[in-house]
Amino acid sequence: MYAVSFYDPDPDATPEHFQKLIDTYPRHRAYLDEFALSGDVMMIGTFGDPATQGSMAIFRSREAAERFRASDPFWTDGLVFRSRILDWDPLVFAES
User: Fold this and answer.
1) How many other C-beta atoms lie within 10 A of the C-beta of residue 85?
2) Torsion of CA 63, 65, 17, 14, to 10 degrees
3) Coil, strand, or helix at residue 85?
4) In terms of DSSP bridges, do strands 41-46 and 82-88 run parallel, antiparallel, or are they unpaired?
5) Which residues contact 78 (CB under 8 A, 6 or more apart)?
6) b or e along 18-48 (b: 16 or more beta carbons within 10 Å of the residue's beta carbon)?
7) Burial of 8 by CB count in 10 Å (0-12 exposed, 13-18 middle, 19+ buried)?
8) Mean pLDDT split into 10-residue runs, the chain, 96 residues
9) Rg for the chain, CA atoms, rounded
10) What is the pLDDT of residue 96?
């Protein structure tokens, strides 16, 4: 069972909030790069317009998703409006 984590953007975010996200991104990226070495995150990224659509990540387990979120600077600095982690049981096709 995998886990999918969503970060939902604040619909009422101010330009100052977006600036804080930009300022925090280097710490978030450094944390992500270090976390990725464990192999517990498979994919991560933003949707077309992150300011209105947010982002998601696919983790190998719920525990990994919760561990990532617990120390992610975007989360710990209060920059995420809402976060959801859903268990995911995908149908995986062989690569051809």
Assistant:
1) 17
2) -110
3) strand
4) unpaired
5) none
6) eebbeebeeebeebbeebeeeebbeebeeee
7) middle
8) 96 92 96 97 94 94 98 96 96 87
9) 14
10) 78
